[in-house]
Amino acid sequence: MAESECTHDCSTCGANCSSRSSAPTFEPMHEGCHAKHVIGIVSGKGGVGKSIVTSMLAVALRRHDHSVGILDADITGPSIPKAFGTHGDVLSTGDGLLPLETKTGIKMISVNLLLDEETRPVVWRGPVIAGTVKQFWTDVIWGELEYLLIDMPPGTGDVPLTVFQSIPLEGIIIVTTPQDLVSMIVKKAVNMAALMNIPVIGLVENMSYAVCPDCGRHINVFGESKAEAVAAECGIPFLGRLPLDPSLAALCDRGVIELMENNYMDPIVDAVEK
Description:
This protein has helices at residues 50-63, 80-84, 126-138, 158-166, 182-195, 227-234, 246-254, 266-273; strands at residues 34-42, 68-72, 100-101, 107-109, 144-151, 171-176, 200-205, 210-211, 218-219, 238-241. By secondary structure, it is of the alpha/beta class. It has a single domain (27-273), classed as Rossmann fold (3-Layer(aba) Sandwich), CATH 3.40.50. Strands 3-4-2-5-1-6-7-10 form an 8-stranded mixed beta sheet, sandwiched between helices. Strands 8-9 form a two-stranded antiparallel ribbon. The longest helix is centred in the N-terminal third of the chain and has 14 residues, at 50-63. The termini are far apart.
């Protein structure tokens, strides 16, 4: 945007012009609440399994005895409650909203927990969606958390911009898949993070391969991986490859992702615990 066209409303723009304050003004969490590490899980495009990576990371961190919360900022495509089988009404104390807890004690808030029917579409304009995400940060009584994971919607639109400007992120994890467009899509996410001065914790390649049930051979269903080379080109850490595992999809469909039995997330947990 040319500076002559600037509205001086930085909350609606990602341009790095002279009107932008050098230090962003973050929204405070609800009074008495604190999250030691706030991490965004992002993707340049939809369909890469970003939400299941968020869910698996939350489960893995909880197994390391960390207190964990998930803020589902994917307002128009929320899937976090489904993966955990979390249902019920979000209660208000008059002072704020109480997040629901999963069977293992992971706290979460999602627009799907506020709807009468989980299949009801959220047909809201950008400012309303952005305002809802802010309220999930400021109006929810999270308590004391070691890790708050924010499941972002795909792309580089209003909600990621709102989160980057309103919430003090420690960093982001970018999720991608092994396809030809990966380089361009990852670079968009990396460049947006750089523009907003948000560190990139690393890149995760999801659906990287399938494992033959008979011989254990890795099959590159979507072609050879390019993620490690792209991470090196972008100057960000490569955190590893996650398989296309039908058992994980089945666990999510049943709402029991907390029963997962694998160590896929170990390298990612190591990266966020540093």
